[in-house]
Specification:
Length: 431
């Protein structure tokens, strides 16, 4: 039995879905601990594909319980749609799904305000959010006027809580020339959703304590990535939740000593979607080649992702703030066909060269410049690789360089989208 946290070590979209899918086969319970419908991963059901934003992919395995933890913000309408999509495909997700009664609800005014802010700001200062209401919902949580999922079981109390929240947002809505919504209308829209979700509400912290006490394995699945974490990310160009491993503790309601292993996921290069600093970005043909070969378009918004070389100081930083035990390197196959591969190994700052990630300097022009080493590339496609010894020598050297420079062992390697296109060096559930 093990409790493993999986966390994105970059700016999200590291290919977590595939690694989580691999790890899920070893887990009895899969928990999402932060974020909301701003995440997204594609599930393949028979010949059919669907994108889920809230429900962990573990739902496809017949005996895995899936938990939406208290660190999340949940849009009830999105969640019920996901449940119905899965039911339409012959699955029965509902009995294995548990929603923390302490998770906060995203309500229509959160989505409206997120969208209004994003669309009314000049592009230069907009965050580039997913417009799913994430920021305003966490703002309400911090302002202590949030609406928790548990209130779905008592709609008259929920209505009072919504009234308070609307009172808080009314000046903002008026400033945007918007109609201030009426709490009763919001409650009416929630009624049929509440009928579906109330039976799934639970004290999920207790559920996890029982699972761990009885020897079950738990997978805590982070959404977004370390550099989008509200505390550890490239603030203010971050999401509003604790996406890094620390968030797993409060967002799932477990103690820090319950965690056995923390696995960080990194692409073999870097991507970012939305605004904010990205020092190793390649705004040229090489970046375009990475985007095309890696199909780098957002799964929630469809936006093209920004692309660049791997940033080892940023990975060292992720290793430190998450306490990474191991790395999973994804999309190594996408680097095939580059004669030379750039690797950012350090930064030049006004105080000299540093191997640390100068996170407070990278958005200030000229204050932190990436220093690259150039490694040899390879031409061979990697889809058939099943062990490190199958890799071309240059690809092996590339991985060894990353491992040595970051100081964290590579546990898993992904060389394609299929489940079989994975090299297991160490299984994080069998340490
Ligand atoms: P929000 O989470 O919608 O508030 O967006 C804040 C920032 O996080 C924006 O730059 C988004 O593009 C980014 N973001 C949010 N969710 C994800 C994700 O799942 N993958 C990558 N970026 C994300």
């Amino acid at each position: 039995m093990s409790t493993v946290v999986i966390v994105g070590a970059q700016w999200g979209d590291e290919g977590k879905g595939k690694i989580v899918d691999f790890c899920t086969q070893h887990a009895d319970v899969v928990v999402r601990y932060a974020g909301g419908p701003n995440a997204g991963h594609t599930l393949v059901v028979g010949d059919d594909k669907l994108i889920v934003r809230l429900i962990p992919s573990g739902i496809l395995r017949p005996n895995t319980r899936c938990v939406l933890g208290q660190g999340m913000v949940i849009d009830a309408e999105v969640l019920v749609k996901e449940i119905e999509e899965l039911e339409r495909r012959g699955l029965d997700p509902i009995k294995r799904l548990f929603v923390s009664d302490r998770a906060h609800l995203i309500l229509p005014y959160h989505v409206a305000i997120d969208t209004l802010r994003e669309t009314s700001q000049p592009a230069a200062v907009a965050i580039g959010t997913t417009k799913k209401g994430i920021g305003p919902a966490y703002e309400d949580k911090a302002a202590r006027r949030g609406v928790r999922a548990g209130l779905l079981a008592d709609l008259s109390r929920l209505e009072k809580a919504v009234e308070q929240a609307i009172f808080g947002w009314a000046p903002t809505l008026r400033a945007f020339d918007q109609r201030v919504p009426i709490a009763a209308e919001i409650v009416d829209a929630l009624r049929p959703l509440a009928d579906r979700l109330v039976p799934r509400l639970a004290d999920t912290s207790l559920l996890l304590a029982d699972a761990m006490r009885t020897g079950q394995s738990v997978l805590l699945e982070g959404a977004q990535g370390t550099l989008l974490d509200i505390d550890h990310g490239t603030y203010p160009y971050v999401t509003s939740s604790s996406a890094a491993a620390g968030g797993a503790v409060s967002g799932a309601g477990i103690g820090p000593r319950c965690i056995d292993t923390v696995l960080g996921i990194t692409k073999a290069y870097t991507t970012r979607v939305g605004a904010g600093p990205f020092p190793t970005e390649l705004a040229d043909d090489t970046g375009k080649k990475l985007r095309e070969a890696g199909a780098e378009f957002g799964s929630v918004t469809g936006r093209p992702r920004r692309t660049g070389w791997i940033d080892l100081p940023a990975l060292r930083y992720a290793a430190r703030v998450n306490g990474l035990d191991g790395l999973a390197v994804t999309k190594l196959d996408v680097l095939t066909g580059h004669e030379k591969i750039g690797v950012c190994v350090a930064y030049e700052t006004k105080d000299g060269r540093t191997r640390d990630f100068p996170i407070d300097l990278i958005d200030r022009p000229g204050l932190a410049t990436p220093i690259y080493e150039t490694l040899d590339g390879w031409r061979e496609p990697l889809g058939a690789v099943r062990s490190l010894s199958d890799l071309p020598a240059a690809a092996r050297a590339y991985l060894a360089f990353v491992e040595r420079e970051v100081g964290v062992q590579i546990y898993l390697l992904s060389v394609g989208a299929r489940r079989s296109e994975t090299v297991v060096i160490r299984n994080p559930f069998e340490l």
